[in-house]
Amino acid sequence: MKTIFKTLFVTLLLFSCSNDDDNNNNQGDYNEICSDVVCTEEFVTLTITVTDSYGDPVALDDITVTRLVGEGEVIFDEVPDTGDDGTYPIYDDRFVEESFSKAVEVNFKGYIDGNEVADENFTFTADCCHVSMLSDDTVIVVDTDDGIN
């Protein structure tokens, strides 16, 4: 009788245990973890640089930056005023909460005269306050020797 009772007790104990880590895949709960964090008012926009093989900035006519998760949302599709210096936005603090504690990949495409001259993927993450780039290289070198520049 004691053996049956012990077996039942151990069985109930095992089935009543749960592992909360299974539900969040080690990404944490942004609202729970970050609720007491004080952030700056700075809004971070991360950029990449597009140059030619000589290191000179390349002015693109058009860009498309697409998140490669979910439905592939386009997050930037206009060349900013700073485009003449070869600097283009690629990710910003709008995505802090959904990028918190995980890697998010985006695709950057650049165009000159309707021709695609740049196509690169970049990876980002975020802490409680700001996004940051995980990709090492932030420069895209395009071939402008074919008359495109």
Q: In words, what does this structure look like?
A:
The structure is a single chain. Helix content is 19%, strand content 34%. The longest helix is centred in the N-terminal third of the chain and has 15 residues. The chain is α+β, with helices and mostly antiparallel strands and 149 residues long.
Q: Could you describe the largest sheet, including whether it forms a barrel?
A: 5 strands, antiparallel
The strands making up the biggest β-sheet line up spatially as: 3-2-5-6-7
Q: Uncertain segments of ≥5 residues (pLDDT<50)?
A: 5-27
The tally of domains stands at: 1
- The topology string of helices and strands comes to HHHEEEEHEEEE
Q: Which architecture does the CATH hierarchy give at level 2? A: Sandwich
Helix/strand/pairing category = alpha+beta
The termini sit apart by 87 Å
Kindly state the percentage of residues in helix: 10-25%
Hey, roughly how much beta strand do the residues contain?
A: 25-35%
In brief:
By secondary structure, the protein is α+β, with helices and mostly antiparallel strands. The protein is 19% helix and 34% strand.
Blueprint (SSEs and pairs):
Layout (H helix, E strand, L loop, with lengths): L1 H15 L4 H4 L5 H5 L10 E8 L9 E6 L6 E3 L10 E6 L3 H4 L4 E9 L2 E12 L4 E3 L5 E4 L7
Parallel strand pairs: 1-8
Antiparallel strand pairs: 1-4, 2-3, 2-5, 5-6, 6-7
What labels describe this entry?
8 strands; Immunoglobulin-like; alpha+beta; 149 residues; 4 helices
